[in-house]
Design brief:
Elements lengths: L1 H29 L8 E6 L1 E2 L1 H5 L5 E8 L5 E8 L6 E7 L30 E2 L6 E7 L9 E5 L5 E6 L1 E2 L1
Antiparallel strand pairs: 1-3, 1-10, 2-9, 3-4, 4-7, 5-6, 5-8, 8-9
């Protein structure tokens, strides 16, 4: 009788261990791993006061990858915006709380204000007020590229995401 009880207990324990290990494996495989030499930062959007005053409740995320081969890729996803509207989105040179994220990040600080020298993952929202944008630049952004800001059509800063190492 003891042998049967022990065997059943062992099978239950084995099933639990296999279940737990399977769950851990799924979690490990679901976590993106940057390529060797890449640096990844990301953050969640929060609505600035100017956005709240305009009736926005913006959510979403920003993701920056500085690649080993010298490129910068920024993708954004934002919700809670007006439908079918084009928004300016730029990487900024300070954190969200520091002077409203400072100015636009510029690869060449003496260079022009354009998408070749700055990082502009702008987008046009869909009918549900959701926007997705992506920018790929042929330079590796320096450490002062700290935040992504969404601007309203008049240039007001309505949302910001701090880019935190991932």
């Amino acid at each position: 009788m003891k042998t049967v009880v022990i065997a059943k207990s062992h099978r239950k324990l084995s099933s639990v261990v296999v279940f737990v290990l399977s769950g851990l494996l799924v979690l490990v495989l679901a976590i993106p791993v940057p390529a060797s030499g890449a640096e990844v930062t990301r953050g969640k959007f929060h609505t600035y006061a100017a956005g709240i005053e305009r009736g926005f409740d913006i959510s979403g995320r920003a993701h920056m990858t500085r690649t080993a081969d010298g490129k910068t890729i920024v993708s954004v996803h934002a919700a809670g915006l007006e439908a079918d509207k084009t928004y300016g989105v730029h990487v900024h040179n300070k954190a969200c709380y520091d002077a409203n994220a400072g100015g636009h990040y510029m690869h060449d600080p003496n260079g022009g204000v354009n998408p070749l020298n700055e990082i502009w993952p702008g987008f046009t929202t869909n009918a549900a007020g959701i926007g997705n944008g992506k920018a790929t630049n042929d330079f590796r952004a320096r450490s002062e590229a700290q935040a992504v800001v969404i601007h309203d059509t008049d240039g007001a800063r309505i949302a910001c995401a701090d880019l935190i190492p991932y």
